[in-house]
């Protein structure tokens, strides 16, 4: 249950871009979801969903800290966290990754709505883990889906 009116524009962006990201992933043939090549480092679309999901889970934790007054802004090593998240999730089945990402998103949104009022820090984490993060990955995901599609047509 929401205690206050969340930033409606930010929520609308999150919903729209989340749907776009998943529509693209869902358009991939099931046997191509874990094909390396989405990123030069060998990521697949499955790894992308895991990456997004782990950041959503991190945002949910931070939002809970904000809610209970224990959050302190600090520098985070994004590259190190990305490597840690990749290592933890790379061998997980896509069906489990998809559930984890959706659950993490729901927890983030629930934690956001449970805040006692607006918070710049909370909105920053929502943007960074949610719509800005999705938007950062969408152009390459669109290219990747097109590449997979053209490979399918040639086969």
How does this structure look, described?
This protein has helices spanning 8-27, 45-68, 78-89, 94-113, 120-129, 131-154. The protein has 155 residues and is mainly α. It has one domain (8-154): Up-down Bundle (Four Helix Bundle (Hemerythrin (Met), subunit A)), CATH 1.20.120. α2 packs parallel to α4 (94-113). The longest helix has 24 residues, at 45-68. The radius of gyration is 16 Å and the shape is globular. The mean pLDDT is 91.
- On the 0 to 100 scale, the average pLDDT is 91
- Full CATH superfamily name: dinb family like domain
Q: Tell me the count of domains.
A: 1
Low-pLDDT runs of 5+ residues are none
Backbone CA Rg: 16 Å
What CATH architecture would you give?
A: Up-down Bundle
Fraction of residues in helices? over 70%
Taking the sheet with the most strands, its summary is: none
What is the overall silhouette?
globular
Top-tier CATH class: Mainly Alpha
- Multimerization status: single chain
- The secondary-structure element order is HHHHHH
The number of E-state strands comes to 0
Derived from helix and strand composition plus strand pairing, the structural class reads mainly alpha
Beta strand %: under 5%
């Amino acid at each position: 249950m929401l205690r206050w009116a969340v930033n409606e524009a930010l929520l609308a962006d999150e919903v729209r871009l989340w749907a776009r990201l998943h529509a693209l992933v869902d358009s991939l043939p099931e046997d191509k979801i874990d094909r390396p090549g989405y990123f030069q480092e060998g990521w697949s679309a499955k790894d992308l969903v895991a990456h997004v999901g782990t950041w959503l889970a991190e945002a949910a934790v931070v939002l809970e800290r904000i809610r209970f007054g224990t959050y302190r802004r600090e520098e985070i090593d994004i590259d190190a966290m990305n490597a840690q998240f990749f290592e933890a999730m790379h061998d997980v089945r896509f069906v489990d990754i998809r559930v984890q990402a959706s659950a993490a998103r729901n927890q983030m949104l629930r934690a956001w709505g449970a805040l006692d009022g607006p918070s710049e820090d909370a909105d920053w984490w929502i943007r960074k883990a949610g719509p800005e993060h999705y938007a950062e990955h969408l152009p390459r995901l669109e290219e990747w889906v097109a590449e997979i599609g053209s490979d399918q047509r040639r086969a």
